[in-house]
Fold:
Amino acid sequence: MRIRYVVMDLITSSLAFFLFNGVRYVMMGMAQRYGISFLDFISTPKMILEQCLIPLAMLGVFWMSGYYNHPFGKSRLQELSQTIGATLFNTMWIYLALLINDQLPTRYFNYELLILLLGLLFSVTYLGRIILTQASIYNLENRNWAFNTVIIGNSPHALADARRLDKAQTRLGYNIIGFIPIPGESTATSNHKILTRRQLETLCRQGNVDNIIIIAEQDSSEKKILSLLYEYFHLGVPIRIRPSALDYVTSKIRTGDIYAEPFIDISSPSMSDSQINIKRVIDVVLSILALIVMAPLMFILALIVRFTSPGPVIYRQERIGYRQKPFQILKFRSMREDAEKSGPQLSSDNDTRITPIGRVMRKYRLDEVPQFWNVLKGEMSLVGPRPERKFYIDKIVGKAPHYSLLHQVKPGITSWGMVKYGYAGDTDKMIERSYYDLIYLSNMSVIVDFKILLHTISTVIGGRGV
Structure:
């Protein structure tokens, strides 16, 4: 569905800019002053280049605005506001880059040109989006399209909610394809299929599930709800849940009504779509700069690690990342090669397994420099909760189920927890540090990320990494 909006925006942006060039031709008086026909005007190499590149650049702005993250399913007001904001930005940069030096009869014409550019870009772009949105709504309301949904829960309460969702004729188009009973809850009979967890995993892997909704009994404990969240987070499918079970952490989580039933998308962070995209751009740009600028230092550290202790220069370890997806984190090896011959062990301040150069690198956090490559690959972010191993996560979640919420976002090289708390030597300290990361989840923004990065730079320069 996303590609339809991208193609439509490309078509409407090209049309709007072409129509604007017609207005531009008339206002500049090209026929009267220079005797140039409109065909000659738009056929010049400069105009052809503009007509090809400007719409593509406008698509980049539309992407940055977050519109393509979830092009369908947003409210009309959201669609309108995102279109206005993006077209206003496009108008300003096009005017400053291309039009400000146009030779117009009077300065007043500049203002008219600016208003006409904004009007054309907005009206043509918004018209194309409305056409697609209305067509999608029509298909959903007539059951031509549907979003396959699995309900976690099979109690009478879950069945009653599912019937309301199934009967509702709205643009969201949920199609309940099955239930998964929650152990310990009462069950109800239904015409829908009862699924096992393995069947759900298979359906998700095949791309046949669009949503998961957890509908536990009303007296279910917070711990139980969070445990269910941890159990299904790794499937990579949006998970929605009733807010009453998570009051203490939902103040900043985006909410929406599903068929007049309030549910929270607990699998998504509180950042706006535009800030999520801006955060990714910052991650990529700063990671590339860091890898280039620190390349000589990385080369020197690699040589020192290689010749001061046996073993690989780069240490790879499986960590759990966004939505519980495992990945290989990269570090300069700071411990002996046999540091974990007896199994997983956390490090401490006076750990004898740390090599002499490793102690220096850890003090200034230089051992983590290779993780900029993880960021570049999209496995991590510059700022986010520190990733842990599944061995420890399972232990932590048993004591503090809220820890599963940290998988809403990509893990980071640094975090609010690392800045405020530092390294954790055992699972209890990991739990204490996680409270800072929960606060981060509720206050995520590009500005907060920059503050954390500045604190991290101060920590690194001061040698307070350990």
The chain has a mean pLDDT of 86. The chain is about 50% helix and 10% strand. The first strand starts at residue 147 and ends at 152. Residues 77 and 83 are 10 Å apart (CA to CA).
